[in-house]
Write a structure and sequence with these properties.
Elements lengths: L1 H37 L21 H21 L2 H28 L8 H14 L2 H20 L1
Helix pairs in contact: 1-2, 1-3, 1-4, 2-3, 2-5, 3-4, 3-5
Amino acid sequence: MVKCTAIRLGGLRTALGTVLVTLGWATSLAAITLVGVFNGLLLPRELGGLLPEVLGGSQWARWILYLAMLGTSILAALLINNPGIAFGSYFVSYCVAGAITYLVLILPELLGAYGSPGVLVEASIRFTFVALFPFPLIAGLVGTILGSALGEMHG
């Protein structure tokens, strides 16, 4: 009877840990994305992205953001330590990160601080898509593969 309760609690602890790692993963990806958007590094080309005025025109800053996403994904997959669950968690965290990014970008309109209704909705959708696709998606997948491989080697 005691052994059965210990197994249930162990499974609950593992599930709760996976959920918390996934939420932290999503929050980290959204924070990295928002840093890139607010600094003009992950904006569409016609709206300021990649102009010489943006951080001196250095491409390194943009790649540092992608490396941060890669490192976050490696760490999260390593913490989950189960390749199947890690891939599922990555896609959940990627979608939640997109939702968080969109909500933060649209927040001035939701609070009534922006005068023209509807303008931020369209821009926020576009900024979120451009900032999270394709390189962050690829960096996250590669990071998940590397983290899962490291977890399998050491676990």
